[in-house]
Specification:
Layout: H1 2-7, E1 9-13, H2 20-31, E2 36-40, H3 45-48, E3 52-54, H4 60-70, E4 72-77, H5 83-88, H6 90-111, E5 114-116, E6 119-120, H7 144-163, E7 167-168, E8 170-172, E9 174-176, H8 189-198, E10 203-205, E11 213-217, H9 218-230, E12 242-243, E13 247-249, H10 251-261, E14 267-269, H11 273-280, H12 289-295, H13 303-315
Parallel strand pairs: 1-2, 1-4, 2-3, 4-5, 5-7, 6-8, 8-12, 9-11, 10-14
Antiparallel strand pairs: 11-13
Helix pairs in contact: 2-9, 4-6, 6-7, 8-10, 10-13
Bound molecules: (3R)-3-hydroxy-L-norvaline (VAH).
Length: 324
Amino acid sequence: MEHQREAGTYLVTGAGGQIGAELVPALRERYGRDRVIATDVQDAAGRLGQPFEVLDATDDAAVERVFAGRQVGTVYHLAALLSVTAERKPQAAYAVNLGSLVAVLEAARRSGAATFVPSSIAAFGPGTPRDGAPQDTLQRPTTMYGVTKVAGELLCDYYHRKFGLDTRGLRYPGLISHVAEPGGGTTDYAVEMFHVALRGESYTCYLRPDTRIDMMYMPDAVRAAVELMEADADSLRHRNAFNISAFAVTPAELAEEIGRVVPGFSVRYEVDPARQAIADSWPRSVDDSAARQEWGWKPEYDLSATVEDMIAQLSARVQPVGGR
Ligand code: VAH
């Protein structure tokens, strides 16, 4: 399988989303553009560049065709509906998140492709220790997104044990990125704040100011996925999925840190009970010692480094309303 992965191509599903927008360029930089095929259910070729294919990851025949046609050696399966969308459309979220996962796992089983599937801190529920949630602990999420993430973790471990498939995953925290707008996530506020602040406007936050959630800057999240997939398989005691963390932050703390760089930035709070309930069901932080011990995980961006780079990157693109 190792040889197959080195010789094969890299397939990314859901590449047009928040993670894919930065993972695809990073993979092309590392392995060569022509070896990294970006796919998405919508045509994102303009944003992601070639090679690109439109692919509905829930269509198992189409997934099989792409795997066979492209000699896939490694797949990063990102296609999914996030927590807020999943609560609004739970049946669709089940169909997309798990239907696409089974289609990809089956194609990967037949081709021997190594398989990366992101999980989330949403895979934990109210019964999980809320601070420093352990790697191995109770997982009874109360959201459909969380249900699909736990089921996904169990399916990936099953395909490894039963079929010898090289499946690996990460329980991502909230992700902050300047490249792609997030969509449908409970943690989207952490990206929206930057755009609103740079437009010179005041932000209305839908979570309570003291809602603490683990977050990570996207460059760290992308590097973690690549480092995990390149790790020596013999060093992995866990596979699906590793807790990883960078910093835990509240909306009030994030607003204060942004305000240090964008003077006058202000936030008011209008709590959305539905999104607050999702956030309150998650741990406030996780213990990522297993990832550090088994494959050398170490974040490079803390809160202030994240804010500094986000502002630097976005300032060139986001102008105050009415010009400077
Ligand atoms: C969401 N960004 O908000 C995702 C993530 C931990 C949060 O899974 O749904």
